[in-house]
Protein 1
Amino acid sequence: MTPSHSLQLALAALAVLFAFGARGVSGFGSGMIAVPLLAILFPLTRVVPAVAVLNYLAALWIGFKDFRRAAWRELGLLLPAALAGLALALPIFHALSPILLRRLLGGWLLLQAARSLARAPPRAASRGWALPAGLLGGITDGLFSIGGPVYAAYLGRRELEKSVFRATLTMLLVLESSLRLIGYGATGILDRSAIGFAAALLPVAFLGLLLGERLHGRLPEQLFRRIVSLLILASGLVLLAT
């Protein structure tokens, strides 16, 4: 192993530790943090499926412990729309410029985050917004593996308690990611190289999760909502900058 390769792995471990620490706190954020940082060091074709595996395992870990707290009525509205969005992702990818889609999504997330961070809190969203939120989240997850911020923007306006918010978002991502990983495997995107990369980073990812979960339990409700808004803001900035 060359020193440069050792340095690459050390930097990758730091990025994953931070990304999954954020996920342990909020229930999302690992993909939008880890993918852009790891893509600086490694090919995107290896990064995206590897992070998808780590995200799936993280969602299973959190969901196994928190599934009783999930708002299943919210899931029943979001999940069908999210799966439809996943199915639409491929034709949309071929029909429109991926760069344009990233810019549009980035701008929308910035708007949502700005409204949440404003002094006057935004109005609660009605359940009628579950369909467009689910569709947009499924499309962006299928295209970029960054659907969590979209779902979080909707659920954040449903005014759920922080543990219910995290559990609901996690269960949605578990169910949706199962199908996405099957698709990655069937199309050859998830290969041995990506699986090996995910396995090497798995211990660091779970360390980050454990640290984030400890912090989650100690956060006041208002501070938690601000952290979620800041993560959504960061997602928008990443999409606009890449």
Note: Residues 3-241 form one domain.
Protein 2
Amino acid sequence: MKLDDLFSIDGKTALVTGGSRGIGEMISAGFLANGATVYISSRKADVCDATAKRLAEEYGGECISIPADLSNLEGIDALTSALRERTDRLDILVNNAGASWGAPLDEFPENGWDKVMDTNVKGVFFLTQRVLPLLEAAATAEDPSRVINIGSIDGIQTPSFDNFSYGPSKAAVHALTRQLAAHLVRRNVIVNAIAPGPFPTWMLSTGVGGGGDVEGTDWEAVGRGNPRGRVGSPEDIAGLAIFLSSRAGAFTVGETITCDGGSIVGRGRI
């Protein structure tokens, strides 16, 4: 049992939603660097196309852009159809596409609730449902296909920000992960979730006052509030995703694994 065999994803085909930036881009880069073919999807076509081109050039692999809005069934079906035109099997699905909305409790709008729930929960369920035939086509008892849902520590602990639909949506993702895992494990499809903590992303930048300027945000200052003394790196999140997608993770089922530098276990300690 050599490391190269235990953790290999070489030759696998993956779909990473929300793959044009942030955590999705980090996971996509890690997959490409280790021999996987990666399809990425995001709502903005120009950004998705540019990221796919850049990642393919940087890692020398095949990264294909399929833009889609996954908050509605029309977009989910469009992505599924486009994927079916390009491949007849899918080894790994990473449900990473997500949305957040910030507003004071007394002013929180209905559209801020619906947008987050539709993208973060409905999109995860129905995309998994739609691509299940592709996942099963790639799956065997010895090498099951994998679904990795990206939740959040905000679905485990009380969020720090006034994003009242986000935490509940991620708690729902964690619950959905367990239920899907129970239904799909005997069909040789393994479902798990990752609950990230602070990573240098557009979404967190908007919450900590960076206004979405990822490069301009003081991530060292943000990291000082974390027990590990830093924010997460691409290696942290990609490494966990690769573990869950490889032979090493083939007996881990229905788990929500934190990747947070100790944010939850260290909360409240001085």
Note: The mean pLDDT is 95.
Protein 3
Amino acid sequence: MHFSRFSPVRFAHLPTPLEPLPGLTEHLTRDTGQGPALWIKRDDCTGLAGGGNKTRKLEFLLGDALANDADTLVTQGAIQSNHVRQTAAAAARFGMKCEIILEARTGSNAQDYNRSGNVLLDELLGARLRTVPGGTDMNQELAKVAAEVADAGGRPSVIPGGGSNSIGALGYAECALEMVAQANEMGLEIDRIVTATGSAGTHAGLVAGLAVMGADIPVLGIGVRAPKDVQEANVFRLALETAALLGHADRVTRDMVVANCDYVGAGYGLIDAAVIDALKTIARTDAILLDPVYTGKAMKGLIALAQSGEFDGETVVFLHTGGAQGLFGYQTELEGHLG
């Protein structure tokens, strides 16, 4: 796969570590002696303003924006969006302006959720923020803000929520190549990759990259928002588009896209006791910090599935998509539950 022809700009700290999770593996196999051998791909270590999965996508999205002489990035996300933080950081890194639309998706009125965590970092990075009610048509809002930028003489580049279009998803097609190369060097045979799936770009990019290179490694996305049928349809469509950019759309098949959306809970960005338990478990077994919205729910699902015997005998890689900065937006909800 020839990624340089898409003119990405390089600022991520790559390759990110691929390392074992001995503590969590022992925790999940202690009673029965069965279960998975767990590894983690540390995409929380990509380096841009705290890192996270959006950094890989932004290398390609910024390349596209700069090639089109943009001077302003326009994007959107939920109030505690990790994507928004990393986009604001990318804009600052390249001397661009950044216009952000934050959706009050959870309905939370908590001061820490609305002012701390990623929101504080967005402002520190110099982004201009505006907040809209939950349920707002965010594509329409993006178009409106981009038009305002253009009317004022700016040159906007619109980046979709999560950086999840085919250009952004190239970052995770490339990650698939990186991960397989690391595994080969280590003599590690990966049976399955597990990751959070939300705006679909990370999941779709992995599926596309693995399919194009012919690596027979299934990817399980643990859903954080949409129902299974909707999520799988979104991932499949984007995986096809991404593979088409790489010249091999025919290599992606519908059966490659699998999402388990049984662990969303009450809704996007809403946490429960099992999410908090997952956050505590991996922090206290392997000193890994997850976020409450994406990786916390994905780990909630991974732990539950492992305990049910789903992964017995497998080597499973958990893709850590970052976001621990968002923990500070959930201080009120976490207090009293960390003992």
Note: The chain has a mean pLDDT of 96.
